Amino acid sequence: MFIGKKILVGVTGGIAAYKAAEVISRLRKQHAEVHVAMTKSATEFIAPLTLQSLSANPVHVELFDEPKLWNVEHISLAEYIDAVVVAPATANILTKMAIGLADDFLSTVLLATRAPIFVAPAMNHAMFHHPATQANLTILKDRGIHALGPDTGFQACGTVGDGRMSEPVEIVESLARFFGGKDWLKGKRALVTAGGTREPLDPVRYLGNRSSGRMGYAIAQALQEAGAETVLVSAPTDLATPPGVTRISVQTALEMYDAVLAHFSEVDVVVKAAAVADYRPAVQAEQKIKKDGTSRTLELVPNPDILAELGRKKTSQILVGFAAETENLLTNAQHKMQRKNVNLIVANDVTKPGAGFGSPTNIVSFLFPDGRKIDFPQISKLEVGRHLVREIACLLGVDTKE
Ligand code: PMT
C-alpha cells in the first residue's frame, strides 16, 4: 500500500510518544519512506536515535540545524512528502496548527505543507474535553485534517477516559485506506457547487439562506484527493479553497446557472451541494430602499432549476443532487431524484442537530434510482465527501474494492 509513499511522522511531547516507534516500524514494513520530525519535548519521552534507527532517516528537531538533506529543509520536506501523521498529537500542537503558529521544525512543516495531514490526539481526558481543544479539533477537521481517535481507556495519569492515542496498527490502517482510494477518479473531471446563493434586493440587501459552503467544499476536497480535476462553483463563503481545486465565485442563482452550464459538457461528474434560491426579487432597486413606515410586498420570480436543467441535458455525466428537507425526508428526496433525473441523491434532514447548514458534520442517506439506500450516522462532511467519491467511482465503472 505504501510503495513509493513518503510519510513524515511528527512526534510531540506526550507519554504516548513511545508508540510512535511502532507507527514508524509498521509504515516501514509496508515499504513507506519514513521521515521523522520531533518537538523538543518529544525528545524527553523517546530518544531521536530510536526513531532514526527505525525510520532509517535523520530525525529533525531544530529549525536551525545544519541541513541534513536539502536547503531550507523544512520547506523542501514539506513539499516532498505525500502525507504527515502527527502521533501523538498533544493539545499544544493542535492549538498551534489551529492558529497557524510555526515556531519549531514540526509546526513549520505543518504550516508549509500541502500534503494531507493526519493527527492522532493523545492527552489527559480533561484536556481533551476542554472547549479550547474541541474548538481546535473542529477547526482542523473543517480544514480537511484527518483526526484519528483518540481511544477511551486507562490513562498514564491514573484516570480513565477519552484521550488515549489510537493504536499504531489503526493509525497505519487509516493511512492505508486513505492511499488505497486515492486514484479512483484520476483522469476524470468534476464540478461541485457550494454555498448559498444571494439574490439582491438593492445595493445593500439580499435574500439568502443558511448554507456555509462546508458540505460542497468538503466534497470538492474529496474529489480532488481521489485524483479528479475539480472545479468548484461557489456562492459567497468564508472558506479557503481546497488545495488543487479551481474555484469560480458567483453570487446569484443566475450566475451559478451560467457557470455550471458553461462547464457541463467538459465534466464527467457534477455534485450540486449548493443551496440555490428558488426565487429572486422581480426587481432589484438601483438605490438603497428607504423605509417609509408602510408595509411592503415583495414580488418574487422563479430562478431556473440548475440541476433539473442538467438532468435534461446530460449525456454520459454522473449527476449527484442534494435534498435539504425539514419533513418527509425520504419521500421528498426520492421525488427530487426522479424529477431532476440524477444518478444519486444525498438526503439530509436539516433540522437534525449535527446535520445540514453550518455544521462540520452531517447525517445523510444516499438514494439511488434502483431503490438502493445507504444510511450514514453523524460523520464529518469530509467523510460524507469520501463516501460519495466511492459511489461516484462505482457509477463510473471504477473498481473500488480494496
Ligand atoms: O453549506 P453547508 O452549511 O455545509 O450546508 C450543507 C447543505 C445543507 C446546504 C447541503 O447538505 C444541501 O442539502 N444542499 C442542497 C440544498 C438545497 O438547495 O436543496 P433543495 O432540496 O432545495 O434542492 C435540491 C437540489 O437541486 C440540490 O442539489 C440543489 O443544489 C439543486 N437546485 C435547487 C434549486 C435550484 N434553483 N437549482 C438547483 O440546482
Q: What tags apply to this protein structure?
A:
402 residues; alpha/beta; Rossmann fold; 2 domains; 8-stranded mixed sheet; 6-stranded parallel sheet; 22 strands; 35% helix; binds ligand PMT
Look at the structure and give the CATH class of the largest domain. Answer: Alpha Beta
CATH architecture call of the largest domain: 3-Layer(aba) Sandwich
Q: List ligands, each type once.
A: ligand PMT
Question: Biggest sheet, in brief?
Answer: 8 strands, mixed
**How many runs of DSSP E, i.e. beta strands?**
22
Query: What is the alpha-carbon Rg in Å?
Result: 24 Å
Going by helix content, strand content and strand pairing, the class is: alpha/beta
**Strand content of the residues, in percent?**
15-25%
